[in-house]
């Protein structure tokens, strides 16, 4: 009886031209990686509701197995990505320009992660220098991204990598030019990202003998 009912439902849906849409929702990779859940909740999460970086899925798939427990990460911009990185590395330090958002994020962070408020301007861009240490991974996904990319190079470990999200934007086009002059190569990870439905890109900038073994 149940099988017959399912067949009848599919017949109705196909008659309404909805069968393909329902199958996409039930069986596609969009469901498996949690995109539908992120889209409806407007939160960057996976299918189980756990935090994900708001970056492209190909980038997340690539970098996750390459992160190591001794890494220190710095983020321009914070949120679910801060929580996600903290589960994979030794420490995460993030900076934000929105005080209300800092309070919201800080309540959710584990002991090895921290977020700091800095007003937009020089103190925001230079926030990566405030700890006095260098980082294996620096993520630029906040404001003033071009300036932050330039400033951050000096705060990478010798094998460190820089990550620029939404790198397809025309306003960030100059980044690849000066990063090349600094001796970096890059890999573009185009694809969909949580929450949004358009194509976007996350780029990893790296040098020889880098910590991700690229």
From TrEMBL:
It comes from the Bacteria. Keywords: Methyltransferase, Transferase. SUPFAM superfamilies: S-adenosyl-L-methionine-dependent methyltransferases. GO terms for biological process: methylation. One of its GO terms (molecular function) is methyltransferase activity. This is FkbM family methyltransferase.
